[in-house]
Predict the 3D structure of the following.
Amino acid sequence: MTYDEMTAVRVGELTFDVRTLGADDGDPIVLLHGFPENSLSWSAVAPLLADAGLRVIAPDQRGYSPGARPPGVESYTTDVLADDVAALADALGLDTFHLVGHDWGAAVAWVTAVRHRDRLRTLTAVSVPHLAAYGAALQSDPDQQARGSYIGLLRQAGKAEKLLLDADAGRLRAMYQDHVPPAQVDSYVAQLSEPGALTAALSWYRAMTSDLDSLPPVTVPTTFVWSDEDQAIGRAGAERCGDYVDADYRFVELAGISHWIPEQAPTSLAEAVLDRTVGRP
């Protein structure tokens, strides 16, 4: 099976579309995409991990998979999204696994590391730091407040959908800043243009509550990867991230890279993941 092929995985009443790559007997590693993307965001990273012996598992998450798109904002809280990760692992017969998340996938990964600590071998969070670190920066750092101002718009039901999808989804396409391959942008936009899809994806934002700031420290061996040209996440939160990891911790800073690390810097990201998961010579 190639990474371009999808497998349907049933979890309760939902069906997730999942991409896999690598040997069936490899150590499993689950990759969680961000917004506004899907599992194709890992296209350039997945082969590097598989070549190192890992079994790559990358789902289109809740709201993105057409069969896992329930109505209601309450269906998209971070606890629910994190529990999806554990349930997918159960459905695939995985007792423990490595976990990697980018953007919103990183936020879900941090919560998963707290709620399901016994399932995780390692954690690699990309772009978004521990949510308490991000929340502290959002409260006190003017730079992060400016970078996060877009969130208020995305939480406005109806207005955000219209703004992003009008005029051939021009504003949605502009979010990728020419750092994402055009074919992947087309895939992301096509999926989010399906009936109800963008509303479901935006429900992740609309379900956010202030208690995310109080997420406990994680106790999983963790690497945090951040890029210094990230338009959404500033340095203040990135540098506080380690304060919320009570385990071996590594901070990897990528110079000259935008927010779209999996697409723009797949080799550097794969190296950081492999350093954390299997070690490299």
